[in-house]
Amino acid sequence: MLWCGAASTPVRAQTGAVANGVTQAVQELKLSMTAAGRIEALMVREGDRVRPGQVLLHLDRTLESLEVRRRQLLLQDEVRLLDLRDREQVLTAQVAALRPLLASGGVARKQLEDEEMALRAVVAERRMLEAAKRREAVELELAAEAYERRHLRSPIGGVVTRIAQRVGESVSPNEPVIHVVDVSRVRFLGTAPAGAVARLKAGSTVTIRLGQDEGGRGRPARVTFVSPVADPSSGLVEVIAEFDNVDGSVRPGVAGRLSY
Prior knowledge:
By secondary structure, this protein is α+β, with helices and mostly antiparallel strands. The chain is built from three helices and 14 strands. It has a six-stranded antiparallel barrel. Strands 7-6-4-9 form a four-stranded antiparallel beta sheet, with no helix packed on it. The protein has a two-stranded antiparallel ribbon with strand order 1-2.
């Protein structure tokens, strides 16, 4: 404790710079559809915990389902292709058998040429059909992708905090429908005078105290960002730090103070 002036007024020595700010979840997503449609099924409610990749809802998908089935049937139909391969095999054997006979005069050149032309025609048709099958495979993938776009999946594990639309309502592309928050890791966003954070840098270890009670239990956090510029109107510098919240004891949104 320091003493100043004749009046002996006590002044406490500063133990660490302080930045005031608020907390927020590191991952807080507003999920939307990439296609327009009517919600046909809703698989979650507010408060439900979801896994990465879990389907949250799907739109009406009858047409997309039928298109996938149609593309599957087209791709699976190989009757003509199998017939061409059989004919190609037979004609190849016939041409191979006729060529030695041409030299001995046992077969006319015209007959051999006809067989070779028939073989080339069958080979060309077989190759065209194989190319068509490859295109059908790609078209099936496109149909499957269109079907998948009728589903909304959660990209993260977390908790559903808000559902904006219900079953039977229509949604537009890129319109937020469901909010999912992962509170297992929390970010502190604060501001402090430029001089107070001069020694701070990304990777520094700091302490976060939440609420108005400065004597409360502090949480160790790691600085992830210190702005290289100060706000021209206030002279404050933005500081971001993150800390684990696996137990969920911290509700993102509460105010806090950063010290080091």
